[in-house]
Amino acid sequence: MAALALLAGPCEDRPVRTAREAPLRGVAQLAERRFTAWRGRSGRRYVASVFAVQDGHALNFTDAVLLAVSPERTIVAARDSGAFGIDAALTRWRDAAAMAGACEIHVHLLAEDGASRRAALADLMPEA
Questions:
Q1: pLDDT digit string (tens) for 81-127?
Q2: Which of 11, 34, 38, 116 is within CB 3.0–4.6 Å of 111 for a Cys-Cys bond?
């Protein structure tokens, strides 16, 4: 039975070493990619809105998890947007992420409080 489980491939709820993008099947046919999802190392799923890295709207959300994503679909940087929306530090973060190779900002809005956002960040960021 164990051999059968190995042949079946990874389970979506099984922990993994790095977060990976798991695009939403229901919106795959849309011409414009506006939403996606990520699987954290824990196996937990995080739905996010997709913005171009220079789109200022991505920085206007408060109490959100921001993921700077490279063309290779890896997370370059991540942070909590904070409670006050766009500020100079957030703009500097975005610019540094773009210089590091990010082409998109993915915005996860479903974390309910600061502790949930910190947990999501810890789950999504690569292990150091």
A1: 987 767 889 999 999 999 999 999 999 999 999 999 999 999 999 77
A2: 116
Q: How far is CA 87 from CA 44, 56, 59, 90, 95, in A?
A: 30, 11, 8, 5, 12
- Per residue in 51-76, is it b (16+ CB within 10 Å) or e — as a string? bebeeeebbebebbbbbbbbeeebbb
What sign has the CA pseudo-torsion 57, 62, 64, 68?
positive
Q: What is the identity of the amino acid at 5? A: A
Residue recorded with tokens 């171009």: 52
Residues ≥6 apart with Cβ < 8 Å to 63: 80, 81, 82, 83, 109, 111, 113, 114, 117
DSSP character for 42?
T
Alpha-carbon gap, residue 92 to 125, rounded angstroms: 19
- Give the C-alpha separation, 87 to 64, whole Å: 14
